[in-house]
Amino acid sequence: MSSITAVGEVRAAGWAHRARVVLGLFKLRIGAVIAFTALAGWAVASGPALSAWQVVVLGLAVFLSSASAGAFNQYVERDVDARMKRTQRRAFVTGELPHSRAWLGVILGLVAASTVAAWWALNGWSALYTFLGAFIYAVVYTVWLKRRTWMNIVIGGLAGSSAVLAGAAAVDPHIGAVPAILAVILFLWTPPHFWSLAIAFRKDYEAARVPMLPVVVGSARASQAIFAHAVALVALSVAPVFFGLGAIYLAAAVAGGILLLRRCWALLREPGPQRAMAAFHASLTQLSLLLLGAIIDGTWW
Fold first, then answer.
1. Which residue from 105, 204, 261, 271 has the least number of CB within 10 angstroms?
2. pLDDT tens digits for 49-76?
């Protein structure tokens, strides 16, 4: 191998690493889930059909807004992340990215761009919900509540609800029954999802002095709250069938619901890290099935 080729490969590896660092800042997997949530809201809403390019703009605007909120979370929580093993390798902690106002400007600019894009391509209500999703996660949850109260993620669950409403409002600003129910489902889904993670990493949250529910009341009582939320969530997830969704959605909701209840019941009986991570992953599967069923039923069935 020539020296020129070797240098080229090193540079390529360096650029690839930088790209991974920057992309990791924006929590792209969470952004993709939130964008998928917005598309579910669009799919189940009744009203004039959106063109393909409008649907693309909706998904990208919500994705970008959510990703920017995730980056803001890391910008604000550098000190907290440094005290948690799970997050101490994040770029603002390690110094791989400078903790500068320039990054804050980029983040705020991306939120503004996503909001303007939704306003331009869709309407003001969709733009408002797109912005609110980012604002609730970044400011209400991260800045105001996370270090103050165990209710942090309960209220923070409204960020996911806002994504559903952004999708539904893109079709009709008057939110119908099915997207409204989906918004409540997202609100109920968020606490057990994050509380399961908090049980698995309770020592991290204790070290960072973040009052997640398992830190405040212990893993056993937190697992009781998780199971209660899961029961309410699964029961409500069947309700859209009575307002127009069909067999595809019902099958997805039931399959995901059974999986979630089984994992949360196992966590209730044995409230430890392993069971908690199983419940955490089950909540992701349950939500993915629910949203996929809603999109298929709402658009093609």
1. 105
2. 999 999 999 999 999 999 999 999 999 9
Nearest partner of 289 among 259, 262, 253, judged by Cα: 253
Burial class (CB in 10 A: 0-12, 13-18, 19+), 82: middle
Helix crossing, 273-299 with 247-269: angle to 10°? 170
125: amino acid identity, one letter = W
CA dihedral (17, 19, 23, 29) in degrees, to 10, reads: -70
What is d(CA 285, CA 147) in angstroms, rounded to the nearest whole number? Answer: 29
Token pair 């942090």 in the structure block, residue: 152
Distance CA 276, CA 290 (A): 21
pTM score, whole prediction: 0.92
> Residue 67 in contact with residue 26, Cβ under 8 Å?
yes
Could you give the CA distance from residue 237 to residue 180 in angstroms, rounded to a whole number? 12
Residues in the chain: 301
Any residues with CB less than 8 A from the CB of 41 and at least 6 apart, and which?
163, 164, 165, 166, 167, 168, 169, 170, 179, 182, 183
52-58 contact pairs (CB < 8 A, 24+): 53/121, 54/121, 54/122, 54/170, 57/117, 57/118, 57/121, 57/122, 58/118, 58/121, 58/122, 58/126, 58/166, 58/167, 58/170
Alpha-carbon distance of 233 to 257, in angstroms, equals 8
User: What span, in angstroms and rounded, lies between the C-alpha atoms of 185 and 196?
Assistant: 17
Pull the structure tokens for residue 187.
């609100």
CA distance 275 to 223: 10
d(CA 23, CA 5): 27
Tokens 């893109």, residue located: 170
